From TrEMBL:
Phylogenetic lineage: Bacteria, Bacillati, Actinomycetota, Actinomycetes, Propionibacteriales
Protein name: Helix-turn-helix domain-containing protein
Superkingdom in the source lineage: Bacteria
Pfam families according to UniProt: HTH_20
CDD domains cross-referenced by the UniProt entry: HTH_ARSR
Amino acid sequence: MKSPAVVSELAAPFSMALPTLMHHLHVLEDAGVISSQNHGRGRTVSLRPGALDVLHLWLGERRTPAAHQADRLGMHLTRTTSKET
């Protein structure tokens, strides 16, 4: 796991105002995804261990039905294309 990130460093690659980024970080903190701490004049944020595990499981459950649907669509398109040639 990487060390905590300084908010100003996180903001650097984005073209948004720092208060806007702070709002997004507060939403993530309220959701329990990150934690933050004041260090002098700066603020650092860290990803909470295991915070995204539930999301990972939820996405995994939905991946299988979506994959089956995509497979069926692929077979249909293959059959349709074969009949046209």
